[in-house]
Amino acid sequence: MANITNPEAVKFSNEEARPYNDHKLANYRTAKQLIANYTGKGMSAILGATGTDVIVDGAATDGRTARFRLEPMSVASFHGRTLDLIRTLGGTPELNGRPNEIPEAIPFAKDRVERPYDAAASEVGMTTEELLAHLGGMVERKLLRRVAAILFHRRAGFSANGMGVWKVPDEQIMEVGARMASYRGVSHCYQRPTYDDWPYSVFTMVHGRTARDCEATIDAIRMETGVDEYCLLWSVKEYKKVRLEYFTPEWDGWYAKHATHA
Q: Is residue 262's pLDDT more than 60?
Protein backbone atom coordinates (compact mmCIF):
# COMPACT_ATOMS: atom_id res chain seq x y z
CA MET A 1 0.00 0.00 0.00
CA ALA A 2 1.30 3.46 -0.91
CA ASN A 3 2.46 5.73 1.93
CA ILE A 4 0.47 8.92 1.30
CA THR A 5 1.99 12.02 2.89
CA ASN A 6 0.54 14.83 0.77
CA PRO A 7 -1.95 16.72 2.99
CA GLU A 8 -4.44 17.22 0.16
CA ALA A 9 -4.27 13.53 -0.78
CA VAL A 10 -4.77 12.50 2.84
CA LYS A 11 -7.76 14.85 3.16
CA PHE A 12 -9.26 13.51 -0.07
CA SER A 13 -8.78 9.90 1.08
CA ASN A 14 -10.37 10.51 4.47
CA GLU A 15 -13.25 12.73 3.37
CA GLU A 16 -14.19 11.26 -0.01
CA ALA A 17 -12.51 7.96 -0.84
CA ARG A 18 -13.01 6.27 2.53
CA PRO A 19 -16.77 7.06 2.85
CA TYR A 20 -17.24 5.84 -0.72
CA ASN A 21 -15.42 2.57 0.02
CA ASP A 22 -17.34 2.14 3.28
CA HIS A 23 -20.58 2.59 1.35
CA LYS A 24 -19.50 0.01 -1.25
CA LEU A 25 -18.53 -2.43 1.51
CA ALA A 26 -21.91 -1.99 3.20
CA ASN A 27 -23.66 -2.68 -0.12
CA TYR A 28 -21.52 -5.77 -0.62
CA ARG A 29 -22.44 -7.12 2.80
CA THR A 30 -26.11 -6.36 2.20
CA ALA A 31 -25.98 -8.17 -1.14
CA LYS A 32 -24.24 -11.15 0.48
CA GLN A 33 -26.97 -11.32 3.12
CA LEU A 34 -29.65 -11.09 0.42
CA ILE A 35 -28.08 -13.95 -1.54
CA ALA A 36 -27.88 -16.09 1.59
CA ASN A 37 -31.56 -15.47 2.36
CA TYR A 38 -32.54 -16.00 -1.29
CA THR A 39 -30.79 -19.38 -1.38
CA GLY A 40 -31.77 -20.44 2.12
CA LYS A 41 -35.46 -19.69 1.68
CA GLY A 42 -35.68 -21.27 -1.78
CA MET A 43 -36.84 -18.06 -3.46
CA SER A 44 -35.61 -19.22 -6.86
CA ALA A 45 -38.42 -21.79 -6.84
CA ILE A 46 -41.22 -19.36 -6.00
CA LEU A 47 -40.34 -15.80 -6.98
CA GLY A 48 -42.45 -14.64 -9.88
CA ALA A 49 -45.19 -17.24 -9.40
CA THR A 50 -48.69 -15.89 -8.85
CA GLY A 51 -50.24 -19.08 -7.52
CA THR A 52 -52.56 -19.37 -10.52
CA ASP A 53 -50.09 -19.00 -13.41
CA VAL A 54 -46.92 -20.74 -14.45
CA ILE A 55 -44.46 -18.01 -15.39
CA VAL A 56 -41.22 -18.40 -17.33
CA ASP A 57 -39.06 -15.29 -17.61
CA GLY A 58 -37.55 -14.38 -20.93
CA ALA A 59 -33.94 -13.45 -21.57
CA ALA A 60 -32.58 -10.75 -19.31
CA THR A 61 -31.74 -8.62 -22.35
CA ASP A 62 -35.34 -7.84 -23.19
CA GLY A 63 -37.23 -8.94 -20.05
CA ARG A 64 -39.96 -10.79 -21.94
CA THR A 65 -42.26 -13.15 -20.07
CA ALA A 66 -44.73 -15.80 -21.09
CA ARG A 67 -47.29 -17.68 -19.06
CA PHE A 68 -50.14 -20.11 -19.06
CA ARG A 69 -52.78 -20.59 -16.41
CA LEU A 70 -52.73 -23.64 -14.20
CA GLU A 71 -55.83 -25.79 -14.55
CA PRO A 72 -56.66 -29.49 -14.32
CA MET A 73 -54.65 -31.24 -17.03
CA SER A 74 -52.59 -34.36 -17.59
CA VAL A 75 -48.85 -34.44 -17.08
CA ALA A 76 -48.46 -34.77 -20.85
CA SER A 77 -50.45 -31.58 -21.44
CA PHE A 78 -48.50 -29.67 -18.80
CA HIS A 79 -45.23 -30.94 -20.26
CA GLY A 80 -46.17 -29.95 -23.80
CA ARG A 81 -47.44 -26.49 -22.86
CA THR A 82 -44.30 -25.80 -20.84
CA LEU A 83 -42.06 -26.71 -23.79
CA ASP A 84 -44.16 -24.54 -26.12
CA LEU A 85 -43.92 -21.66 -23.68
CA ILE A 86 -40.12 -21.88 -23.57
CA ARG A 87 -39.95 -22.00 -27.36
CA THR A 88 -42.15 -18.88 -27.54
CA LEU A 89 -39.42 -17.05 -25.67
CA GLY A 90 -36.79 -18.23 -28.12
CA GLY A 91 -35.44 -20.99 -25.91
CA THR A 92 -34.53 -24.53 -26.88
CA PRO A 93 -35.84 -26.82 -24.13
CA GLU A 94 -33.80 -29.93 -23.49
CA LEU A 95 -35.41 -32.10 -20.82
CA ASN A 96 -34.91 -35.72 -19.88
CA GLY A 97 -38.57 -36.35 -20.58
CA ARG A 98 -39.30 -38.54 -17.55
CA PRO A 99 -38.92 -38.25 -13.75
CA ASN A 100 -35.27 -38.75 -12.81
CA GLU A 101 -36.04 -40.08 -9.35
CA ILE A 102 -38.44 -42.87 -10.41
CA PRO A 103 -37.09 -46.03 -12.06
CA GLU A 104 -38.95 -47.05 -15.24
CA ALA A 105 -41.13 -43.95 -15.00
CA ILE A 106 -43.83 -43.10 -17.54
CA PRO A 107 -42.45 -40.44 -19.93
CA PHE A 108 -44.08 -37.04 -19.39
CA ALA A 109 -45.39 -36.90 -22.95
CA LYS A 110 -47.23 -40.23 -22.51
CA ASP A 111 -48.75 -39.59 -19.08
CA ARG A 112 -52.23 -38.60 -20.28
CA VAL A 113 -54.30 -39.64 -17.24
CA GLU A 114 -56.31 -36.56 -16.21
CA ARG A 115 -58.22 -38.18 -13.30
CA PRO A 116 -55.63 -40.15 -11.32
CA TYR A 117 -57.98 -40.74 -8.36
CA ASP A 118 -60.55 -42.69 -10.39
CA ALA A 119 -58.63 -45.98 -10.18
CA ALA A 120 -58.01 -45.61 -6.43
CA ALA A 121 -61.69 -44.88 -5.81
CA SER A 122 -62.72 -47.92 -7.82
CA GLU A 123 -60.43 -50.15 -5.73
CA VAL A 124 -62.20 -49.21 -2.48
CA GLY A 125 -65.72 -49.21 -3.96
CA MET A 126 -66.30 -45.43 -3.94
CA THR A 127 -66.93 -42.77 -6.51
CA THR A 128 -64.07 -40.35 -7.02
CA GLU A 129 -66.10 -37.59 -5.37
CA GLU A 130 -66.74 -39.77 -2.31
CA LEU A 131 -63.05 -40.65 -2.03
CA LEU A 132 -61.96 -37.01 -2.26
CA ALA A 133 -64.58 -36.01 0.33
CA HIS A 134 -63.33 -38.78 2.63
CA LEU A 135 -59.73 -37.62 2.24
CA GLY A 136 -60.82 -34.06 2.93
CA GLY A 137 -62.50 -35.20 6.14
CA MET A 138 -59.30 -36.95 7.22
CA VAL A 139 -57.38 -33.73 6.67
CA GLU A 140 -59.88 -31.79 8.80
CA ARG A 141 -59.57 -34.36 11.59
CA LYS A 142 -55.77 -34.13 11.43
CA LEU A 143 -55.52 -37.79 10.43
CA LEU A 144 -54.02 -36.97 7.04
CA ARG A 145 -51.64 -34.13 6.26
CA ARG A 146 -51.41 -34.43 2.49
CA VAL A 147 -51.39 -36.85 -0.43
CA ALA A 148 -48.12 -36.58 -2.30
CA ALA A 149 -45.61 -38.50 -4.35
CA ILE A 150 -42.47 -39.59 -2.52
CA LEU A 151 -39.40 -37.99 -4.04
CA PHE A 152 -36.12 -39.88 -3.80
CA HIS A 153 -34.20 -36.67 -3.32
CA ARG A 154 -30.77 -38.21 -3.74
CA ARG A 155 -31.70 -39.57 -7.18
CA ALA A 156 -33.13 -36.15 -8.06
CA GLY A 157 -29.77 -34.51 -7.38
CA PHE A 158 -30.26 -33.28 -3.81
CA SER A 159 -27.49 -35.44 -2.39
CA ALA A 160 -26.30 -33.13 0.41
CA ASN A 161 -28.15 -32.94 3.69
CA GLY A 162 -27.36 -32.18 7.29
CA MET A 163 -29.01 -31.59 10.64
CA GLY A 164 -28.61 -28.11 12.07
CA VAL A 165 -28.88 -28.24 15.86
CA TRP A 166 -29.45 -24.92 17.64
CA LYS A 167 -29.09 -23.68 21.20
CA VAL A 168 -32.26 -21.59 21.50
CA PRO A 169 -33.28 -19.99 24.82
CA ASP A 170 -36.40 -21.65 26.24
CA GLU A 171 -38.46 -18.46 26.10
CA GLN A 172 -37.70 -18.05 22.36
CA ILE A 173 -38.24 -21.60 21.16
CA MET A 174 -41.83 -21.14 19.95
CA GLU A 175 -41.01 -18.03 17.94
CA VAL A 176 -37.60 -19.06 16.64
CA GLY A 177 -38.68 -22.62 15.86
CA ALA A 178 -41.53 -21.34 13.68
CA ARG A 179 -39.17 -19.00 11.81
CA MET A 180 -36.69 -21.79 11.19
CA ALA A 181 -39.45 -24.09 9.97
CA SER A 182 -40.53 -21.48 7.38
CA TYR A 183 -37.43 -22.04 5.22
CA ARG A 184 -38.07 -24.06 2.08
CA GLY A 185 -34.67 -25.71 2.47
CA VAL A 186 -35.77 -27.17 5.83
CA SER A 187 -37.71 -30.44 5.58
CA HIS A 188 -38.02 -31.26 9.30
CA CYS A 189 -37.96 -28.97 12.31
CA TYR A 190 -38.28 -30.28 15.87
CA GLN A 191 -37.90 -29.21 19.46
CA ARG A 192 -36.07 -31.83 21.51
CA PRO A 193 -34.97 -32.06 25.14
CA THR A 194 -31.60 -30.69 26.25
CA TYR A 195 -29.07 -32.20 28.66
CA ASP A 196 -26.07 -30.98 30.62
CA ASP A 197 -23.71 -31.97 27.81
CA TRP A 198 -26.17 -31.29 24.95
CA PRO A 199 -27.66 -27.77 24.98
CA TYR A 200 -29.27 -27.89 21.51
CA SER A 201 -33.06 -27.65 21.64
CA VAL A 202 -34.17 -27.06 18.02
CA PHE A 203 -33.27 -29.37 15.14
CA THR A 204 -33.54 -28.43 11.45
CA MET A 205 -32.94 -30.92 8.62
CA VAL A 206 -31.66 -29.09 5.53
CA HIS A 207 -31.20 -30.38 1.99
CA GLY A 208 -29.38 -29.13 -1.09
CA ARG A 209 -27.63 -30.18 -4.26
CA THR A 210 -24.28 -29.36 -2.67
CA ALA A 211 -22.90 -28.89 0.82
CA ARG A 212 -22.69 -25.17 0.09
CA ASP A 213 -26.46 -25.07 -0.51
CA CYS A 214 -27.01 -26.54 2.95
CA GLU A 215 -24.54 -24.13 4.51
CA ALA A 216 -26.31 -21.22 2.83
CA THR A 217 -29.61 -22.25 4.41
CA ILE A 218 -27.97 -22.57 7.82
CA ASP A 219 -26.24 -19.20 7.38
CA ALA A 220 -29.55 -17.55 6.45
CA ILE A 221 -31.26 -19.04 9.51
CA ARG A 222 -28.44 -17.91 11.78
CA MET A 223 -28.43 -14.36 10.41
CA GLU A 224 -32.23 -13.99 10.59
CA THR A 225 -32.73 -15.48 14.05
CA GLY A 226 -29.51 -14.32 15.69
CA VAL A 227 -28.86 -17.80 17.11
CA ASP A 228 -25.07 -18.21 16.91
CA GLU A 229 -24.60 -21.37 18.97
CA TYR A 230 -25.24 -24.30 16.66
CA CYS A 231 -23.68 -27.33 14.97
CA LEU A 232 -24.23 -28.74 11.50
CA LEU A 233 -24.22 -32.55 11.54
CA TRP A 234 -23.71 -33.96 8.06
CA SER A 235 -25.33 -37.18 6.85
CA VAL A 236 -22.55 -39.53 5.75
CA LYS A 237 -24.43 -42.73 4.86
CA GLU A 238 -28.11 -43.62 4.68
CA TYR A 239 -28.77 -47.10 6.05
CA LYS A 240 -32.55 -46.99 5.99
CA LYS A 241 -35.30 -44.51 5.18
CA VAL A 242 -38.84 -45.79 4.71
CA ARG A 243 -42.38 -44.69 5.44
CA LEU A 244 -44.22 -47.13 7.66
CA GLU A 245 -47.34 -48.68 6.15
CA TYR A 246 -50.03 -49.06 8.79
CA PHE A 247 -53.14 -51.25 8.80
CA THR A 248 -51.56 -53.97 6.67
CA PRO A 249 -51.38 -57.70 7.52
CA GLU A 250 -47.61 -57.35 7.99
CA TRP A 251 -48.08 -54.47 10.42
CA ASP A 252 -50.81 -56.26 12.37
CA GLY A 253 -48.61 -59.34 12.70
CA TRP A 254 -45.62 -57.34 13.92
CA TYR A 255 -47.78 -55.39 16.37
CA ALA A 256 -49.35 -58.51 17.84
CA LYS A 257 -45.92 -60.05 18.36
CA HIS A 258 -43.91 -57.12 19.65
CA ALA A 259 -46.24 -54.45 21.08
CA THR A 260 -46.40 -54.02 24.83
CA HIS A 261 -49.96 -53.75 26.05
CA ALA A 262 -50.73 -51.77 29.19
A: no
